[in-house]
Amino acid sequence: MKQFQFVRPATQQSVLEVINKPGTKIIAGGTNLVDLMKRGVTAPDKLVDINHLPLKGIAATKTGLHIGALALNSTVSEDKTVIAKQPLLSMALKAGASPQLRNMATVGGNMMQRTRCTYFYDTTMPCNKREPGSGCGAMEGYNRMHAIFGASDKCIAVHPSDMCVALAALDAIVIVAGKKGERRIPFTEFHRLPGDHPESDNHLATDELIIGVEIPDNNFAKNSYYLKVRDRQSYAFALVSVAAALEIENGTIKNARLAMGGVAHKPWRLNDAEKALIGKPANEESFKQAAAIAMQGAKAYEYNSFKLKLAPATITEALKHASGLV
Ligand SMILES: Cc1cc2nc3c(=O)[nH]c(=O)nc-3n(C[C@H](O)[C@H](O)[C@H](O)COP(=O)(O)OP(=O)(O)OC[C@H]3O[C@@H](n4cnc5c(N)ncnc54)[C@H](O)[C@@H]3O)c2cc1C
Predict the structure, then answer these.
(1) 34 CA distance to ligand 1 centroid (A)?
(2) Which ligand 1 atom is the nearest neighbour of the CA of 55?
(3) Rounded to an integer, what distance in angstroms lies between the CA atom of residue 181 and that of residue 165?
(4) Looking at residue 272, which CATH number applies to its domain?
(5) CB of 116 sitting under 6 A from ligand 1
């Protein structure tokens, strides 16, 4: 690993003074960044430790729930207010990584984690995300884990987070701080599709720090479910995952939120499928119809065509669980 400088500026303001310098990276739990450094995928000159900043809080507000960027994945998943108000988030977090990793991983770091595409990690292979212009090893390679939505001819990698799928479904807002002040980004607009610039995963500017997320209050707590399909029961990334949240009144769906993981470069919100569910009876037929709508525009590659069947089946199953049918 290349030698690097390690600094711990005392305040948020002093962090913002240094993070914009070339070769500088923020470190939170380090569970993704240090792996990438060990493998030579990234080689920062300076790490800026932010773990001492007062960004660990979880608090109910007048309009929702505020979670600090440094709250640990394990703390958030076990928090009583989170479980009561937003159980979908707790379920998604518990489906991620392992207990040990969740004890280190932070909310901000989870959002910023990089893809698990093996061609991105393997520095002997071409990867437009790691080295723009070098090509995409996955396109003609072993692309079993890869995208079926929103990919480009430059990159077919997927975003690996579970937490982010729930936050996308729940209309969360990302709060970021820069030298000029704070800005709020709708969660579904935080991450980006690869297009011609797969090296860029999201819309966070290089001089900005994630300080927290907010989830507006909703009526989904009773009927939420996160379903993750993976190769192992634990410690494996999603082949396909679905965050499903329903508001049901007398057997009829009043409101719905759906997002998928493991299928795109960003958490994939299923707006059309949500609309199709509203006003329908909460039964398997409605769920299958919504799942079919969600799959419009899907495109598979040589080794991931199984996702074209797995994804709608997972949507249907997640909705059955959320509605209490199973
Ligand atoms: C073996 C293994 C299995 C895993 N399985 C899963 C899984 O199943 N599901 C899942 O969702 N995740 C999984 N993960 C990923 C894990 O969730 C992430 O590594 C973790 O969430 C990253 O958080 P961190 O605080 O350690 O981030 P770090 O590694 O410290 O940082 C990651 C990135 O975020 C940036 N960053 C951190 N905080 C901020 C901030 N506040 N503002 C701006 N930038 C910031 C850093 O600069 C860096 O680029 C797994 C990881 C491993 C190693």
Answers:
(1) 10
(2) 41
(3) 27
(4) 3.30.390.50
(5) no
